[in-house]
Specification:
Shape: elongated
Number of strands: 4
Strand content: 15-25%
Distance between the termini: 9 Å
Structural class: alpha+beta
Bound molecules: zinc ion
Number of helices: 3
Helix content: 25-40%
Length: 106
């Protein structure tokens, strides 16, 4: 995930933390052109450390942010759209579409 999505991730973090102050963050990435903000409601423990309802609620909060990445350039946060010209699919603005190399790595 590129720096263009930092603000989106920050807003998602704030929304999650307001309801789950102890939440445990897992890797955050772009997956199927959406923001995959992966987290547990609380630090993981053997046998589980949260209810199904809490997990569903967390999923609902992060899910509200997931699709917003579709229109935001991953590199610079300008208006973007999905680009499928590379082996890896990226959400980019017109300018970055020209600049980002074929491998798509940061
Ligand atoms: Zn851009």
């Amino acid at each position: 995930m590129g720096p263009g999505w930092q603000q989106l991730v920050l807003e998602c973090h704030q929304a999650v933390a307001s309801e789950f102050p102890e939440y445990e963050l897992l890797p955050v990435k772009q997956k199927w052109e959406a923001l995959a903000f992966q987290a547990f409601p609380r630090p993981w423990k053997p046998g589980g450390n949260w209810t199904d309802a809490q997990h569903a609620r967390l999923h609902a909060v992060t899910g509200a942010f997931a699709d917003r990445g579709e229109g935001i350039c991953e590199r610079c946060a300008a208006d973007g759209s999905l680009r499928e010209s590379r082996g890896v699919h990226l959400v980019l603005c017109d300018r970055r579409e020209l600049l980002v190399p074929e491998h798509g790595l940061l």
